[in-house]
Amino acid sequence: MLRSLAALLLLSSAAVADTADGEALKAMTWDQVVEEARGGTVNWFMWGGSDTINAYVSGYVADRLKADYDITLNRVPITDAADIVNQVLSEKEAGVTDEGSVDLIWINGENFRSMKQADLAFCGYTTLLPNDALVNWDNPAIANDFGVPVDGCEVPWNTVQFAFAHDSAVVADPPRDMASLLAWIKANPGRFTYPAPPDFTGSAFLRHVFIHAAGGPESLLGPFDQARFDAVAGKTWAILNEIEPFLWREGATYPTTVTQLDELFANGEIDFSFNYDPAQFGLAVQAGTWPETTRSFGLTDGTIGNTNYTLIPFNSPNKAAAMVVQNLLLSGEAQLEKAKAEVWGAAPAIEISRTTPEVQAGFAAIKTHPSVVPASELAKAALPELQADWLTAIEKGWTENVGN
Asked: Which residues neighbour 92 within 8 Å (Cβ) at sequence distance 6 or greater?
């Protein structure tokens, strides 16, 4: 039940931090938000499949929050953000409007679309964050999340672009476009596979094949169109069914997560892995799980790039503290720390030119890991993300026509 601002003023500052509604927060100055946040706890639900990302969040980020704001960060590892979307939706249906279990989610794409459409996101506050000034909201790839306008409902965290990894000691000359990759798969039985949807990365691989079948992304841009989908879908299912017998285990089964795909590559069972975040390849080499001869590449006909974000659910009881977390994540210092190859190697979501000279110098000094294809090279052939309704239709079509 929403409380009036007058009622809020009667509460202690500690209680306000836990119960202040969103409209009251949006009426405050940033200094007031910070004071409300002090001593709070943020339950951040995020993909937990990378030890290095987990260490950055539970170490660098959590330590700074505790030291500077007395905020406790509770990182809650998840496999699929869709599960948390459903959790928040269930809370809303049960009437839980101000004591939700989720304070922050690492999210993008169709999961963001679902939360925005169902009014599950806290919106309209992002301009309060001082570090919002570092974000280029004029960039449509940031202002729109898989074609869905952000509208102040989430805060960018990283930018990524899909890439493939291979062991150069095993595959010296990998295929460089989708047609060549499909031919390679049939010529090398059992040495390639992809995670089954709805795995986020497996779904991205499907979209690359779908775009290839369409002859490029141009006819797929904009809102979902059933006729255009049908014209491309049949070709896509034919391609995927044609390569299926040549996949790992003859396509009788698929990995269910990108983590399993990475394990197959690490064990030498397949010759390629792939990821939206190529920095993961260098981290796997540093961890000793992948060979030093690992190298990565994009495709000459393009790979998909996008931005990922953090989002505060509408019923988070710790919105002020979650806003402070988001502001810290956007800071030049935090973006620089995670950009370091030994920490994560993540591409920034902010304009480096808007940061301090010290932060700019730090970015300039970063050297890309030899196993990681430079972002500047990938960017030469970047493909736009399709709108979320296309993703849903492609995943459903795969289940019905290929995965069955």
From this structure: 118, 119, 120, 314, 315
- In order along its 404 residues, the chain shows pLDDT tens digits of 333 333 333 333 333 334 457 899 999 999 999 999 999 999 999 999 889 999 999 999 999 999 999 999 999 999 889 999 999 999 999 999 999 999 999 999 889 999 999 999 999 999 999 999 999 999 988 999 988 999 999 999 999 999 999 999 999 999 999 999 999 999 999 999 999 999 999 999 999 999 999 999 999 988 999 999 999 999 999 999 999 999 999 999 999 999 999 999 999 999 999 999 999 999 999 999 999 999 999 999 999 999 999 999 999 999 999 999 999 999 999 999 999 989 999 999 999 999 999 999 999 999 989 999 998 899 899 998 999 899 999 999 999 999 98
The secondary structure of residue 166, as a DSSP letter, is: E
The H-or-E segment that residue 269 falls in is: none
β-strands 347-348, 155-161 pairing: antiparallel
Contact 304, 21 (CB under 8 A): no
CATH class of the region 161-305+378-401: alpha beta
312 close to 122: Cβ distance less than 8 angstroms: yes
Burial class (CB in 10 A: 0-12, 13-18, 19+), 118: middle
The overall pTM is greater than 0.90: no
17: three-class secondary structure by DSSP: helix
Identify the CA nearest to 8 among candidates 95, 124, 96, 27.
Answer: 27
Closest residue by Cα to residue 336 from 169, 134, 176:
134
Q: 126: which 2 tokens? A: 């992002």
Q: Is 364 helix (H, G, I), strand (E, B) or coil?
A: helix
Q: Tell me the domain boundaries of the chain.
A: 5-158+307-368, 161-305+378-401
As a whole number of angstroms, the distance between CA 313 and CA 256 comes to 27
DSSP 37-90: HTT-EEEEEEE---HHHHHIIIIIIHHHHHHHH-PEEEEEEES-HHHHHHHHHH
Match domain 5-158+307-368 to its CATH number in 3.40.50.300, 3.40.190.10, 3.20.20.140, 3.40.50.970. 3.40.190.10
